[in-house]
Amino acid sequence: MPAYYADGVGNFRAVSADRIEQALIRAYESDRYKDLITTQLTAWRSQIQDLKDALGTPDLEQFHPDGWGIAIEFVVPRKMGRIDTVLLIGNSILVLEFKGESVDSSAADQVEDYCLDLLHFHEGSHGKVIYPVVVGKTGAEPKVRHSQVFGELRPTVFVDTKRLGTWLAIVAQKHCREPQLSIAHWNRGSYRPVPTIVEAAIGMFAEMQVDDIAKAGCDPINLTTTVETIRQIVVGSARSNKKTVCFVTGVPGAGKTLAGLRLVHDRELREVTQSDSVFLTGNLPLVKVLQAALARDASRRRKNQLRVSSRDPKTTINTVLGYKREHTRNKNAPHEKIVVFDEAQRAWDADRTAEYLTDSSGEFLGYSEPALMLAILDRQPWAALIALVGGGQEINRGEAGLSEWGRALTEKFGHWSIAAPPQALSGVYGAGAKLFEGRQPNDLEVAIHANLHLDTPTRQFRGKTIAGWTEALLRGEARECQRILADNPEYPIRLTRNLATAKSWLDTTARGTERYGFVASSEAKRLRAEGLELPPARADGVEHWFLNEKGDVRSSFQLEVAATEFQIQGLELDWICVCWGGDFLRANSGWDLKRLRGTVWQNIGQENARAYLVNSYRVLLTRARQGMLLFVPVGNDQDSTRPRAPYDETAQFLTECGALPL
Q1: Contact at 8 Å (CB) between 369 and 347?
Q2: Longest Cα pair distance anywhere in the chain, in angstroms?
Q3: Angle of CA points 255, 261, 262, to nearest 5°
Q4: CA 639 from chain center: how many Å?
Q5: What is the pTM of this model?
Q6: Phi then psi for 208, rounded to 5 degrees?
Q7: Which residue has the higher pLDDT, 538 or 16?
Q8: Cα-to-chain-centroid distance, residue 441
């Protein structure tokens, strides 16, 4: 991710502004942009002059600024943006955003976002003190934004151009005796981001280089190897003219959805196989959020004269339900031969599928969703169906799990080839789901690929084994939870009994535009007594909750509505508060699973229903990228639906599992 211009400060001061400007223009035009707009050129000229003036301030001469490093227009692919200027003073990094007269909190959010990316993902910036700086022309004294010091990231400073040189001298006084960072080495430093699903989809749809936006910081090899294995299987199916279903398993947050998006946006794969591809999911909120994010990004790109993909997000990313309806109404082969089925463990059984069938001929009567998908693709001369399977993620009625795919293949589609990891056959991951409930049929062609299992979580890039903590928590193993958290000191898990405290913690912990919000089980209906609402069952407005900015009452930042397992599955936030409900409390040293009916909590006895509730909390507890807060209400003995004792016992157990009370 090199800068458009990078050099020592001495050379920057000596060379003419015109030469620097020409270097920026050449880099800009080679970086997938269209014509250079006048406002950008004007901004560069002003910025270059302001920097030359500031770096020539007499106060700086005693610190020998010519030995410092400077980078202009430093590219940050994950944020799809560029840092105006980076100054390297000793062992410190100053990130400067020039905003002219328009200096406000959004400018601070932007520069903090860039700094956080450097802090977490840029090798040359690890362990360095980083200063976020907003430079304006307001004529005001420098001021500091009140925010938490996070690691080596300092609070954001607002300074005007006339006082910039003097402020640089203050920083230099602190760092001038440190070894000087090399601008050449720093500029070449490797960048290993862990993008959110939304960021990854936007970057891939814009046809950025995948390596620029999706190098998992926790495990850069595993995901790449898995994707390459799938590509080889798909290409082999095309060349051999055969039909293959490829199962990809993994722990929560390991990158299954990211792998699927990479395949769908792999232009070379489409060209080699002469086939288009589509990403399907039964997760309507995920579809709505991704489609809205892609549409907003396309609008932004057109406004800023950036390249826009020719592919339509509504046909590239769609719901399984829409796909089924289209291809059961007509009997033609689908347009795509490559289909990615996300969260394939949530595919419906035959009864649930029948409720939504549009086929009047009865051809698909008794077909489960896996069987129906295979039947639709069976119309092609060759096909590849990539089924992304999460362990223990079934959360709703009729979700049949991995074994339903095995039944469909055994009973109706024995001519299909199967590629799967050993974990899909043994059931040793997640909640123990297996492709074949009994012995593997001898007449099926099954190829085992170890690389089709993703076992390293990348969502929690600051805590690699938080998924393991969740599993131990759900099993009731407090000591194992403590051990796991001891190995993950950078991933905070806190606990509070007060909702106002929870809101304050989220608001003060997040920096820049890091996203935060409440999540809760859809059965935690008595959270209303705490002043917290659950969203309607439909996915209406979910895109606003996930995408809209601070100040919008519909966004997650408002902390008024908690997303449930149905809205949050497949997505994530930087910081999350899991609001504990009366449906999942500790009692007699075990988890007490209940469902509210009217004004009475009823025990859940049916095995499937109990599994769905446990899976719901598994989903909720694995959505936070950087840290998590657990809110356990105090309860009220005057309210029969909220007795205090079970909440107290739950809070005590969570504390024993390592959650630190605020």
Answers
A1: yes
A2: 87
A3: 85
A4: 39
A5: 0.81
A6: -70, 165
A7: 16
A8: 38
